[in-house]
Design a protein that fits this description.
Number of helices: 0
Distance between the termini: 73 Å
Largest sheet: 6 strands, mixed
Number of strands: 15
Oligomer: single chain
Strand order of the largest sheet: 1-2-3-4-5-6
Length: about 200
């Protein structure tokens, strides 16, 4: 027997039966028996499916908001703090590990500076939850991109650790077939090189 609450004539009501639960309002919501949740759609194709019909927008459309707000005096978000999305990867049959993160973080402390960077983090095998990811790339508020550095000083700033015995290619541009167009790196004697 379906369950029904609300005013269908007014366009806002809750309806449910053995197949799904639907909330009709300004933005329709559906909880399917398989566990998928649809917002704006009654046919969710993933665990969370947010849908909005396209119109004539010429800039990005906000579909999801992650927000941190300083709601009392004396509480100040510090440099490096900000909202994040964490990715846990299965390990074994009953556990998962934090192995990835995308975050937007404040670049400096203080209410006078809200500049923020977008950061990308990855984790090694057997990382510890909450501490096992390392920042790998950052897009600073200036638009500078840092790979291997959290303080990019150039449009593209790449830093890599050079092994003690073999040297390392820091940047490689390759053709589809694998042939190098050029290599940039540092040898074991700390000499930089550009191979064309």
């Amino acid at each position: 027997v379906p369950l029904y609450f609300g005013d269908a004539d007014g366009g806002e009501y809750i309806w449910g039966d053995t197949t799904d639960l639907r909330i009709y309002s300004g933005a329709d919501i559906l909880l399917s028996p398989g566990g998928n949740v649809g917002i704006g759609t009654f046919t969710p194709g993933a665990r969370l499916h947010v849908y909005k019909a396209a119109s004539t927008e010429t800039s990005p459309v906000e579909l999801l908001r992650l927000e941190i707000k300083e709601e009392s005096s004396g509480v100040e978000l510090g440099a490096g703090g900000g909202p994040a999305i964490n990715f846990y990867v299965a390990e074994g049959t009953t556990t998962s590990e934090l192995n990835g993160q995308i975050a937007v973080v404040r670049e400096a402390s203080g209410d006078d500076d809200s500049a923020a960077a977008m950061t990308f983090w990855t984790g090694a095998n057997d990382s510890t939850s909450g501490t096992g990811v390392t920042e790998q790339m950052r897009i600073a508020s200036t638009g500078y991109v840092g790979i291997g550095t959290s303080g990019p000083a150039y449009v593209l700033d790449i830093k890599g650790k050079v092994p003690d015995t073999t040297g390392e290619n820091i940047l490689a541009v390759q053709e589809t077939g694998g042939d190098h167009v050029f290599l940039v790196g540092k040898d074991v004697d700390e000499h930089g090189y550009l191979n064309l």
